Amino acid sequence: MSTIVKFFVAPDGASAALALGAGPGRAFEPLSFGNFDADEAVVEWECLISGGRFEELLEAGEPRIVAGEDDDGCVVFALSGRLVDALAEAEPARLHEVAAEWARQRAEDGAAIDADVAREMLGSLGVLARGTKEHGHGLYCWVA
User: Fold this and answer.
1) Helix (H) and strand (E) counts for the chain?
2) pLDDT in tens, 80-133
């Protein structure tokens, strides 16, 4: 489980990788959250909002690490283009549905996420994703 989770927009993977050491600074205007498994969450969100199976996404290499090692150190990974597109195109009501279902699934697995926090998170990510589409950038996540 990640203690600090920051989602941010960057022009490309190389730029996003620069956030590895200290995290994304103010220039990246990050969204900060904490205490959940972010790399697992983005795969779960993609399954819920776009369809697909969790195992297939993992086998396809999602989420793609752009910097760091996924061994309890800091890591930066890219959200898939498919997930970013789905977040950007989803209506707020659809993001609320996905957030509620994700919170329900997490609770069943013993890793409770407050439903209001889940709605805030996915709603904010939807706004951030729309911004990436306008500028041709990607959506990344830094975890520590």
Assistant:
1) 6, 5
2) 999 999 999 999 999 999 999 999 999 999 888 999 999 999 999 999 999 887
Q: CA 98, CA 119: separation in Å to the nearest integer? A: 8
> Roughly what angle, to the nearest 10 degrees, separates helices 38-50 and 81-89?
60
Task: Give the burial class of 46: count Cβ atoms within 10 A of its Cβ; 0-12 exposed, 13-18 middle, 19 or more buried.
Answer: buried
Residue found by looking up tokens 């697909």 in the block: 52
Task: Specify the pTM.
Answer: 0.92
Q: Partners of 9 in the beta sheet?
A: 139
User: Amino acid identity, residue 82?
Assistant: R
Containing 104, the helix (H) or strand (E) segment is: helix 92-108
φ and ψ at 19, to 5 degrees? -80, -5
